[in-house]
C-alpha cells in the first residue's frame, strides 16, 4: 500500500514536470535612426539586432512576431535568417491579440519584437508583473523571457525573467 502511494506520487511529479513548456522572448526594436514613425534602425540598432541573434543562437525558436514597422522587422531579421524562420506580422494594438496567440502555444518558443509602449503591456497581458515600470525612449536593451508550463488541467504557470542583451 505504501509503495503504491509513493509510486503514484512519483508519477504525478513526473507528469507535472513533463507538462509542455513554452518560452516567449519579448524585446523592443533596436535603436532607431530618427524619431520618424517609418524610420529604419541606426548603425547601433543594426549591431544590437545582431547581438539579439547571437543571444538567441543556441535556443530553440519556432516563431518570430513583428509589427508592421520597418524597425521591428530589421531587429528580428538576423534571428530569422539564422533560424530559417519567416517573420509573422501582428497588429501593434491591442496587445491582447498577440498575447492570446502565443498563450495557445504548447511546447513552442517565440520571439516578439515590439515597441517601448507595448513590450511591458504584452508581458502583463501574458500574466506576469514586470519590475521594470517603464521603457523609456532611450531604452533598447531589455529582454523579457516568459516561460509557460501548460498542465493538462488548470491554469498555466508563468514565470518571468528580466534580462538585457
TrEMBL record:
Name any one Pfam family assigned in the record: His_Phos_1
Signal peptide extent: 1-22
Entries under CDD domains matching the protein: HP_PGM_like
> What InterPro entries does its record include?
His_Pase_superF_clade-1 (IPR013078), His_PPase_superfam (IPR029033)
| PROSITE patterns, alphabetized | PROKAR_LIPOPROTEIN
At the top level, the lineage of the source is Bacteria
Keyword annotations from UniProtKB, A to Z = Signal
Q: What is this protein called?
A: Phosphoglycerate mutase
Organism placement in taxonomy? Bacteria, Pseudomonadati, Bacteroidota, Cytophagia, Cytophagales
Amino acid at each position: 500500500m505504501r509503495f503504491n502511494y509513493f509510486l503514484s506520487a512519483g508519477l504525478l511529479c513526473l507528469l507535472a514536470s513533463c507538462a509542455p513548456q513554452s518560452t516567449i522572448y519579448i524585446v523592443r526594436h533596436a535603436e532607431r535612426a530618427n524619431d520618424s514613425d517609418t524610420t529604419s534602425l541606426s548603425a547601433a540598432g543594426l549591431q544590437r539586432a545582431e547581438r539579439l541573434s547571437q543571444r538567441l543562437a543556441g535556443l530553440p525558436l519556432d516563431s518570430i512576431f513583428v509589427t508592421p514597422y520597418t524597425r521591428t522587422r530589421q531587429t528580428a531579421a538576423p534571428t530569422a535568417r539564422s533560424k530559417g524562420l519567416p517573420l509573422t506580422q501582428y497588429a501593434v494594438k491591442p496587445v491582447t491579440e498577440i498575447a492570446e496567440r502565443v498563450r495557445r502555444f504548447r511546447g513552442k518558443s517565440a520571439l516578439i519584437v515590439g515597441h517601448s509602449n507595448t513590450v511591458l503591456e504584452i508581458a502583463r497581458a501574458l500574466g506576469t508583473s514586470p519590475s521594470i515600470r517603464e521603457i523609456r525612449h532611450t531604452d533598447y536593451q531589455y529582454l523579457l523571457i516568459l516561460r509557460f508550463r501548460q498542465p493538462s488541467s488548470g491554469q498555466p504557470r508563468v514565470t518571468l525573467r528580466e534580462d538585457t542583451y
